[in-house]
Design goal:
The structure is a homodimer of 549-residue chains. Chain A is α+β, with helices and mostly antiparallel strands and 549 residues long. Chain A folds into four domains: 117 residues, Uridine Diphospho-n-acetylenolpyruvylglucosamine Reductase, domain 2 (2-Layer Sandwich), CATH 3.30.43; 117 residues, Uridine Diphospho-n-acetylenolpyruvylglucosamine Reductase, domain 3, CATH 3.30.465; 123 residues, Alpha-Beta Plaits (2-Layer Sandwich), CATH 3.30.70; 102 residues, GMP Synthetase, Chain A, domain 3. Chain A is built from 19 helices and 18 strands. In chain A, α2 runs antiparallel to α5 and α17 packs antiparallel against α18. The longest helix of chain A is centred in the C-terminal third of the chain and has 20 residues. At the A-B interface, β8, β9, α10, β16 and β18 of A face β8, β9, α10, β16 and β18 of B.
Chain lengths: 549, 549
C-alpha cells in the first residue's frame, strides 16, 4: 500500500487511454488534466519523530511475537498511521503525519494477539487494530494528543481459511485475510463468500466486520453483518467466542455488538462466515432508464417483486455522464454503435440523453434461475420506459469496479478534491433526500465560489429501502485551506442525510469523521448504550480511543 | 388470559373428538386421559398478600395514567406475576404465587410510559414490562426476595398501527398490540407482517422484540430481529429512537441491543416493521419422508437451493405419530384413504411407517412463483424417497397451529408434565445434536424411573442451519416434587444443546430459565458485554432485574 495514496505502487488512474475524460473534467471542474500541480512530498523529506516506546515493552512485544514482527521502521509507522480518507491523503501528502503509532506489531495467531493486548494494558499503552488500512472515516488514526505508547496491531499474518463446513456452507476464517486471498482459498474448494466492497483488493475480513461493510453483491449475499455468523475477539475481559448458530435469542446480540465496533471492544481474530457454491452462471446486464425518478421507481419495484438479483445499481444522470466519459478509446465501430444507440433513444424512445440513467443489474445461479430473474426484472424496466443494453457495459463495470479509488489520487495530483458520502433510507425517503443533497451540496459549492460536481448511484437494495452513494469533487478556491473547503461540502452532505431521514453512513462506519452526527442518527440514549458497552469492556480506554463515541 | 393456564377461559384441549389420542397417551406416558387427578386451587383460596406500595407513589401513578389504569386488584396482580412456563403453571396451580407485583399500571401512550418510569426510578421501584404474558423462560417474574415496590407495566392499551409507508413497505406500530389485532389492522390496508409464533393469539409486538421471537413463516418474513427496522424505547437515559433505515454502519447496532433485552434496558413503546402485500396465493403442502436422516437432508438441500418457501418444517417419527394421533374423528372414507396410503407406502415405497416423518412446506406469492417453488422442492423431496400428500394435512396444521399450548394444561390436569426446549445449530451439527438430546433425555427419564416421551421438529431454516424444537412429557414418579423431576429432564436437554454446539434457545429468550447456560453459549466476555450494557443504562437495577445475566 502506498503511504500517500490508494493501492499498489505503480498502479494509478490515467486519462491517456480515455479520450473523453479530459474534456469532461475540464467542463465539470474547470481543471486541466494535463497540468500536474501538486505531488506528495518525498518520503525522505518527512519529519518522522522517534518512537515513544519503553525498552522493556518493546522487548516484551518481541518476546511475544518474534523480533521480526515488531517494527519501528518509519515507513511502517507512516503506512499504519491512518486510513485513506481524503483528509488522510491530503495531510500525508503534505507531510502532516499527525500522531504516528510508535510501533507496528504483527502477531501470527490469536494467542499472540492476546499476549500483545495483555502487555499493552499492563503498560497502559493504546492498541489500534489494522487490517488493510483502507478505512475512510478516520477509524485508524490515534488522537493527536495521545501521550501513551501507541501500538498498531497488524493482522496481516493471520490470513488463512481454517476450515469449510460444506454441509452448513460456513467457513472459519482468520480476520487478517485480504479479499482476493480469501476468495482464492474458498474458490479452490468451490465456494465464494460473495463480499465485494470497492476496497476488496486492499481490505480484510476483520476490517469489514469492524466497520459493518457491505459488498456490491449484498442483494444476494447480504451485508457483512448478515454473512458473519460467529466471531472470536480478544478483549480486555478475555477472548469472546460466539457460536456459529443461524439465529438465537440469547439476549442482546453480542455478535452484533462486535460488528461495527472499530477496535473499541477488542481485536477480531476470526469469524465464521456464510459461503456459497460458486454459481453456474453469473451475468451483469446494463440498462438505460429515462430519468432518476423512474430509476428509483424501478429499483423499488424490483425490491418489492419476486425477482432476486445479486446486484442492483443505478447511476443518476451526472454519474451516467461520468461513466460514459471514462470509456476507453474504442474502435470506430463501437463509436458508430454508440451514436446509433443515442439516435434511437432520442428519436424512437423520446429519451433526454442528458437525463438518462445507467443501471447495472446482476444475476447469479443456474441458467433457469438467471433466465427467470432477467424476465421479471425486464418487465419492470420496460414498464418504466427503460431498456436493456446487454452485457458489454456490465462486464466492463465488473472489471473496473475496484479501480475507482485511484481517481482521488489522480485528482489530488491536479489540485482537486474528491470524496464520497453514502447513506441509506426508506424507499419513500430516497427521492427527497436525493434532491436535498443536490441542493445543499450545490449551495455549499456556491458559498465557497468553487466549481463542483456531484453524482450519485443507488446500490444495495433491501425490502424497506436502499443505499444512496454520492461522489463529489471540486477545485478549491485558493482562498483558504482546501481541507476547510472540503469540510464545508462534506458536512453539508452529511447533515442533509440525517436531516432528511437517512443514516450517517450505510457502510463506511463512524470513525472520527462521522462521530458528530451519531447522536442525531441514533439519539442520545443510543450513544449512551454504545458508551456503556465500551466503558464497561475497556475501562482504561486502551482500545482505539476516540472512535464512534 | 387464564391466571392458572394458557389462553382464553373456556377454551381447552380435549380428547373427546380425537379417537386415537387417549390410547396414544396411554402408551406414551402410561396415563389414563379419563382420570383428571389435579386441578388448580380455586382463586378464592389463594393467599394474595397486600400490595406494598406507598400512598404517594400510587397517587402519582394515578395522576400519570389515570385512576382506572392503576390496579392493585388481586386477579390483575396474579395474572401479571408470571409468564406461562411449565414452572409458572405448576406453581400458580398450587397457589405458590411467588413475589407478586404490587401494582399493575396500564399507560395509554409513550409519554405516560416515560412518566411511570420516572416515578419508579425516583421511588427506587422495580418496573417489569408486560405484553401478552406468554413468555416461557421466566422473563416476567420478580426475584423472590425483591423488597422494593414492583410495578407491572402492561402495554395493552398501546395497540395501534400508527401508519403504513406503502412505498417502503414499513409500518409504525405501538408495542402493545396483540398478533391478531396487528394483522387485522394491516390486512385492512392489504398488508401483513407475516410473524406467526405459536403464541401469536396472546402475544404482542413488544414482547416479540424483547425476546427475539421467530414466527413459523420466518423463512420468508424473517425473525423479528430481521423485520424490526426501528425501535422506540423509554429508558432511564431518555427515549431511544432509532431510524427506519434498511442497513447502517453506525457502530455496534443499538437496534440489536434492544432486541432480546427482556425489559432490562427500558420499555419498548413502538417499532417500525417490514410489511408485505398479502400474497395472491398461499398454500401449505404435506410431505412424507422415509426417516429423520433423510428429512434433515431434504431440509438442508432446500435451504441450499434456489427455492424460497415460506415455511419449512418436518417432524421426527415420534412427533409424526403424535400428529396422526391428534386427528379428529374422521369419516369412514378418510379412514379408508389413510389405510390405503399406509399400504401403498409400505408395499410400493418400502416405507417403515414407524420411522416416517411428516413435513409441511409453505409457499406464498403469485401463482407462477408458488408453482415454480413447489417444483424445485418436489424434486428434492423425490430424490430422497419422499412424496407429497397434498393440501389436507397442511390446511389442518395451519388451522390448529395456535392451539398447541393448551395441551400442557390438559396434561397437568391429569398429573403429567409437558414442556418444550428449542435450539438452533449449523446444518452439520443438527444430526448429532438430535441424537444426543434423544439419548440424554431418555437417560434422564430412566434415572428418574419415569415413563417419558420426547419428540422433535425442525423449523425455521436458514442458509447455515435451522432450529430444532423438542417437546417432552412424562408422568412424575411420585417420589419427589414433580418440578424437581422436570428440572432434571429440562436441564439434561438444555445442557446437551450447548455441549453439542447449539444455542440455549432459538426464540424463547433467556429469562431466568436459561440464564445458567448463557456463559457456556456466548462465553464469559459475551456475558460481560451484556452486563456492561445493562449496568450502564440502568445503574439502579430498576428494570426487570435478574433476567438474562
Amino acid at each position: 500500500m502506498k503511504w500517500w495514496g490508494w493501492g499498489h505502487e505503480g498502479v494509478s488512474f490515467t486519462h491517456e487511454d480515455k479520450p473523453d475524460i479530459g474534456p469532461f473534467i475540464k467542463r465539470a471542474l474547470e481543471l486541466d488534466v494535463e497540468r500536474v500541480t501538486s505531488r506528495p512530498v518525498a518520503f525522505d523529506d518527512l519529519d518522522v519523530p522517534e518512537p515513544a516506546i519503553a525498552t522493556d515493552l518493546r522487548a516484551a512485544l518481541e518476546e511475544a511475537v518474534g523480533d521480526e514482527h515488531v517494527s519501528t521502521d518509519p515507513l511502517d509507522r507512516v503506512v499504519h498511521a491512518r486510513g485513506k480518507s481524503l483528509r488522510d491523503l491530503v495531510r500525508h501528502r503534505r507531510g502532516d503525519l499527525g500522531r504516528l503509532p510508535d510501533v507496528v506489531v504483527v502477531p501470527g495467531d490469536e494467542a499472540e494477539v492476546a499476549a500483545v493486548l495483555r502487555l499493552a494494558i499492563d503498560a497502559d499503552a493504546v492498541v489500534i487494530p489494522f487490517g488493510g488500512g483502507t478505512n475512510i472515516s478516520g477509524s485508524l488514526e490515534a488522537p493527536e494528543d495521545e501521550t501513551r505508547t501507541i501500538i498498531s496491531l497488524d493482522l496481516g499474518r493471520m490470513d488463512r481459511v481454517l476450515g469449510v463446513d460444506d454441509a452448513s456452507r460456513l467457513a472459519r476464517v482468520q480476520a487478517g485475510v485480504f479479499g482476493p486471498h480469501l476468495e482464492e482459498q474458498l474458490n479452490a474448494r468451490g465456494f465464494t463468500v460473495g463480499h465485494f466492497p470497492d476496497s476488496f483488493t486492499h481490505s480484510t475480513l476483520g476490517g469489514w466486520i469492524a466497520t459493518r461493510s457491505s459488498g456490491m453483491q449484498s442483494d444476494k449475499y447480504g451485508d457483512v453483518a448478515d454473512l458473519t455468523r460467529a466471531v472470536r475477539v480478544v478483549t480486555p475481559a478475555g477472548t469472546l467466542a460466539t457460536r456459529a448458530v443461524p439465529s438465537t435469542s440469547t439476549g442482546p446480540s453480542v455478535r452484533e455488538m462486535v460488528l461495527g465496533s472499530e477496535g473499541r471492544l477488542g481485536i477480531i481474530t476470526e469469524a465464521t462466515v456464510h459461503v456459497h457454491r460458486v454459481p453456474e452462471r453469473r451475468v451483469i446486464l446494463g440498462y438505460l432508464l429515462p430519468d432518476w425518478r423512474r430509476a428509483l421507481a424501478v429499483m423499488g419495484e424490483i425490491a418489492a417483486s419476486e425477482a432476486s438479483p445479486s446486484v442492483t445499481r443505478v447511476s443518476d444522470a451526472n454519474e451516467t455522464q461520468f461513466s460514459f466519459a471514462t470509456k476507453k478509446d474504442s474502435s470506430s465501430l463501437d463509436r458508430l454503435k454508440s451514436k446509433a444507440l443515442g439516435a434511437y433513444l432520442q428519436r424512437r424512445r423520446a429519451f433526454d440523453l442528458g437525463a438518462m440513467c445507467l443501471s447495472f443489474i446482476g444475476y447469479e445461479g443456474t441458467e433457469d434461475h438467471v433466465a427467470a430473474q432477467r424476465k421479471l426484472v425486464g418487465r419492470i424496466v420496460s414498464r418504466h420506459g427503460g431498456l436493456c443494453i446487454g452485457r458489454g457495459p456490465g462486464a466492463l463495470y465488473d472489471q473496473k469496479k475496484f479501480d475507482t479509488p485511484y481517481i482521488r489520487d489522480y485528482l489530488l495530483d491536479r489540485g482537486a478534491m474528491a470524496d464520497v458520502s453514502e447513506t441509506s433510507a426508506a424507499w419513500s425517503v430516497l427521492p427527497v433526500l436525493y434532491d436535498n443533497v443536490v441542493a445543499n451540496a450545490r449551495a455549499a459549492f456556491d458559498a465557497l465560489r468553487v466549481t463542483g460536481y456531484l453524482m450519485c448511484h443507488l446500490s444495495h437494495s433491501y425490502h424497506g429501502g436502499a443505499c444512496l452513494y454520492f461522489t463529489f469533487a471540486f477545485k478549491p478556491s485558493g482562498d483558504r485551506d482546501p481541507l476547510e473547503e472540503y469540510d464545508t461540502v462534506k458536512a453539508a452532505i452529511q447533515q442533509t442525510f440525517v436531516d432528511s431521514g437517512g443514516t450517517l453512513s450505510h457502510h463506511h462506519a463512524v470513525g472520527t469523521e462521522h462521530a458528530r452526527w451519531l447522536e442525531q442518527d441514533i439519539s442520545q440514549p443510543g450513544v449512551a448504550m454504545i458508551r456503556a458497552l465500551f466503558d464497561g469492556i475497556d475501562p482504561g480506554a486502551n482500545l482505539n480511543p476516540g472512535k464512534i463515541v
